[in-house]
Design a protein that fits this description.
alpha/beta, single chain, seven-stranded mixed sheet, 27 helices, eight-stranded mixed sheet
Length: 944
């Protein structure tokens, strides 16, 4: 009789269990099911495990695996017996398996829902987090196969494995019997297990990026023998930046004994380098990259920056070449920036790495920058260079990443690194697309709680070659969700740099109140108008007149900063003429000293063609280079300022705590940056108390689940009937006002008698639904005569009853018509939306959005976020409506879609918000099998 262990074909090979993961030290490994073809790999793996680890696994000396053992550990049915392996370079470094057991502890099949689990990790890879990653994946596999609980028996001395289980965050039970610790734990994810998983994810991904940005040794592969070319240029850029590690030049075309190139040791192959290499910068034609990757992998290189083009950006063939590149690199445990990358920069004093195509090292500073394309990277560096030295003082870059095609390392990975990077205070990102909005929003919220995150969001598609779900949400909706997560979303690179420079060196404003002072009445009035346009609360400008001295500016600024009714100050300055007029350096020192006396409020300067003032502001803080060389004036009246000496070192960076006053060539740029800082400050204050998801005693979650299960049994995805919709929503305390079909005048009269007058008569045909403006809705019909007359008018105007689908509904109290929607997006997750019904939402797009689950504070802000919100609060003498009841409705809808992911779409329209209470007059619900939740599963890297 054939046993289940022999029936490998009981289920086809589960390819979807394969995954690449980032380990604790930043390296990578591949996790996949073990098959009958892995016998030799398993034996080789076991031979490299120490006797102690073998003893811990089998509770007895077990020097080698028997043929029976090998058969048992490689033959699985992928249901009751499953084995997974972690591999690097195709070889096993760790294994995990489970065997389903019954109540008696013996092998069993479903419906038994418990399994024994056991691990074995090669000693050389212990401490890298391999077992923790395997536990996440084997637990996800077990849940998929109907297993709800794991049991593990561990020797007390095996403290490392006990820690793997206890640290996982699952609900568990421990016992001790016959000298063995028995651990039992449920596999249902808990808040703690998710928190543990995400903390591990952050540490692992941050370390993987740190290995790329802080290498101890670098090899540039593809260095030309003659000057020029990408490889030779990058080699020179690294050398000239003063890189503090070991640098190597590689080209297979070098002679047998190449010696040095530009003073750098040269080799024909990475294999020939006697030292360990942390990072390889690859600048060879795409067809030669696989051979280079193999050399790097065999030599133990930790990461690659691939500058080579000819990948996904070039079409289908290049896309396949890119996928092969990522698979090859991950097989060796390496991460990739690129391909088609511009490169990376780290200005830290001990690193000074310029592994990019930028010919000059940026000034060191506290701003982290990310871009995809080289063109955007150049634009970002150029603007920051121009503004950093010529306008605002030496506010420079901590690290810069231009990731090209983002085949592997993405903005999410770099955000993980910047989150706890002590050298970075502000993060600027140009995102041409967001491949994983759900994860990015989660990471952005956490990062924004610690440091500002400013983003220009493009409207491109997901990274080419990535196997990620594309979002179906409109660009504006994604933008709103980013703002909810604390992201400062701006529209241009200029705004990105303007906002970043303000946040990098000035405190956050405590509120929107702005004081304006200066020596130009017209410039002050222009600044005042822009403040009003941006939603700030400016005071009337203080005109110091064109004859104002430096002491006048100092005194006025000091008084404004000391005023408790002021949260920030904008100084408007124009060139003054006359012997008493202050010089640039004198004025800059006056402003700096006044601002230093009150360090808790931000100060900005709006200047008109005062190139000297900008440089003087730098000098006043003693941070500008000793000499500068001006280039011709560029856009906005700013000047590109280049150091006349070598790039500044740590000695020229601003002293800790120095406040550099940002100066802007136009009032609108300064005020826009200030407005973003005000919004961010408000978000930070509110983020300390995000609110809670309320509980409601009348919610019948189990009853709703039963009803959903019964309805889904009829089909994969369906829009349920009106009666079923009313029943489901009723389980969550959301009553829908009854609407009875009226296929004839007599049926309409009968329905009205059942509901009671007054009633409304509505056409529900798709082209007339909710369109009172077209005449498809008749309200306040007080008796049967009015009802029959309205029925006749509708059919005369729009056609036969079967085309109109008329219904009769009892009248609701008068109020404001609104619409509430919830949808589950495959990439972003569940989103709750709100707006006013009709033209405001449909034509003008005036809708507000929040991610589910929504807290009580978020529901309050959601109602107030739309531009037409004043209509709810007594605009122009109207009666305010019951917004608390509206907020409760929003919270109940949020609970419904959060509790039941099978509810993939809900629309409540119209929702009439009256002075007392709300009435839901129309509702539709769509059910479908829930989409996969990537954020609840085990840690994985983007698939290829």
């Amino acid at each position: 009789m054939q046993t289940s262990a022999d029936r490998q074909d009981r289920h086809l090979y589960p390819a979807h269990w394969e995954a690449d993961v980032v380990l604790r030290d930043g390296g990578t490994a591949r996790i996949r099911p073990i098959t009958i073809d892995d016998a030799d790999r398993l034996v080789s793996f076991y031979e490299q495990v120490s006797d102690e680890s073998k003893y811990y696994r089998f509770f007895a000396p077990y020097p080698r695996l028997s043929a029976k053992d090998v058969h048992r550990f490689t033959h699985h049915d992928f249901v009751d017996r499953v084995g997974l392996a972690a591999t690097i370079g195709g070889e096993f470094i760790a294994t995990v398996r489970y065997d389903r057991i019954g109540a008696d502890g013996m092998p069993a099949s479903a419906p038994a829902d418990e399994a024994e689990v056991a691990f074995l990790v090669q000693d050389a890879h212990q401490g890298r987090g391999v077992a923790s990653a395997l536990l996440e994946h084997i637990a996800a596999v077990a849940r998929e196969r109907g297993i709800r609980r794991f049991a593990a028996e561990v020797l007390p001395a095996n403290t490392k494995m006990i820690k793997v289980f206890t640290d996982a965050g699952y609900t568990q039970k421990r016992s001790f019997e016959d000298g063995v610790v028995r651990l039992e734990f449920d596999l249902e994810p808990t808040d703690r297990s998710l928190a543990v998983q995400r903390a591990r994810e952050q540490r692992a991904e941050a370390r993987s990026v740190r290995r790329l940005l802080m290498p101890g040794s670098v090899a540039v592969v593809g260095v030309g023998r003659a000057p020029g070319g990408v490889g030779r240029s990058v080699l020179g850029n690294i050398r000239d930046a003063g890189y503090g590690g070991r640098l190597h030049a590689v080209n297979k075309a070098f002679p047998e004994d190449p010696g040095e190139v530009d003073g750098v040791p040269a080799y024909r192959s990475v294999r020939d380098i006697g030292d360990h290499v942390d990072l390889a910068v690859v600048a060879v034609p795409a067809e030669h990259v696989p051979a280079v990757v193999a050399e790097c992998g065999e030599h133990g290189v930790q990461g690659l920056v691939v500058l080579s083009a000819g990948y996904a950006e070039s079409g289908p063939e290049g896309r396949e070449r890119q996928r092969a590149l990522v698979r090859q690199a991950r097989a060796y445990g390496m991460r990739i920036i690129g391909p088609n990358a511009f490169g990376v920069i780290n200005t830290a004093p001990g690193v000074r790495l310029n592994a990019s195509l930028a010919p000059e090292m940026p000034r060191p500073g506290r701003i982290g920058m990310f871009a995809q394309s080289g063109a955007i990277g150049i634009a970002l560096l150029s603007r920051l260079h121009r503004r950093g030295g010529g306008v605002t003082g030496v506010t420079g870059v901590s690290t810069f990443v231009s990731a090209g095609n983002r085949a592997d390392v993405s903005g999410n990975d770099v955000l993980q690194y910047w989150y706890d990077d002590p050298e970075t205070d502000v993060v600027l990102m140009y995102l041409e697309s967001i491949g994983n909005p759900r994860k990015f929003t989660r990471l952005a919220r956490r990062t924004a709680a610690a440091k500002p995150l400013v983003v220009v969001q493009g409207v491109g598609s997901a990274p080419q070659g990535h196997a990620v779900r594309a979002t179906r949400l409109p660009h504006a909706t994604v933008s709103a969700l980013l703002r909810q997560a604390g992201v400062l979303r701006v529209d241009t690179i200029t705004e990105l740099v303007d906002t970043g420079l303000l946040l990098a060196r000035q405190p956050l404003p405590a509120g929107p109140r702005v004081a304006i002072l200066g020596n130009s009445e017209s410039l002050g009035v222009l600044t005042y108008d822009r403040c009003l346009a941006e939603g700030l609360r400016p005071s009337l400008p203080l005109d110091l007149t064109t004859g104002a001295t430096a002491e006048d500016f100092h005194g006025a600024l000091a008084r404004a900063l000391a005023d408790d009714t002021c949260d920030s100050v904008v100084v408007a300055a124009i060139p003054a003429i006359g012997e008493a007029s202050p010089g640039d350096a004198e004025l800059a020192e006056a402003l700096r000293s006044a601002a230093a006396a009150v360090p808790g409020k931000p100060v900005l300067v709006v200047h008109v063609e005062l190139g000297g003032l900008a440089e003087a502001l730098s000098a006043a803080a003693s941070t500008a280079p000793a000499a500068v060389e001006k280039a011709p004036a560029t856009e906005g009246g700013a000047h590109l300022v280049r150091p006349a000496e070598p790039p500044p070192t740590a000695l020229t960076t601003p002293p800790e705590g120095t406040r550099l006053i940002p100066a802007y060539p136009a009032a609108e740029r300064a005020v826009r940056a200030l407005a973003e800082a005000v919004k961010y400050g408000q978000w930070r204050r509110e983020a300390t108390d995000p609110g809670k998801v309320p509980e409601y005693d009348d919610i019948d979650e189990k009853g709703a689940a039963r009803l959903i299960g019964e309805l889904l049994a009829r089909g994969e995805g369906l829009t349920i009937s009106d009666a079923e919709t009313c029943e489901l929503l009723g389980r969550y305390g959301i009553p829908v006002r009854r609407a009875l079909p009226a296929p004839s005048p007599d049926a309409a009269a009968e329905a009205a008698r059942a509901l009671g007058y007054p009633v409304a008569l509505k056409a529900t045909a798709p082209h007339l639904r909710h369109r009172a403006d077209l005449g498809g809705v008749r309200l306040d019909l007080a008796d049967e005569e009015q009802l029959r007359r309205a029925y006749a008018e509708l059919t005369d105007l729009f056609g036969k009853p079967e085309e109109l689908r008329p219904v009769v509904q009892g009248m609701a109290p008068r109020g404001v018509d609104t619409v509430v929607r919830a949808v589950i997006d495959p990439a972003a997750g569940a989103v709750l939306s709100f707006g006013l019904a009709g033209a405001a939402s449909q034509l003008l797009g005036d809708m507000a959005h929040r991610l589910v689950p929504v807290t009580d504070r978020e529901a309050t802000s959601l109602v107030r976020s739309i531009r037409t919100a004043p209509l709810l609060f007594g605009w122009r003498g109207s009666t305010p409506v019951d917004t608390p009841a509206l907020e409760e409705l929003l919270l109940r809808v949020s609970r419904l879609v959060d509790d039941h992911p099978e509810v993939v779409a809900v629309t409540l329209e119209p929702v009439v918000v009256a002075p007392h209470g709300v009435s839901v007059l129309g509702a539709t619900v769509r059910l479908a099998p829930p989409p996969a939740r990537d954020d609840l599963g085990p840690r994985t890297m983007p698939a290829y």
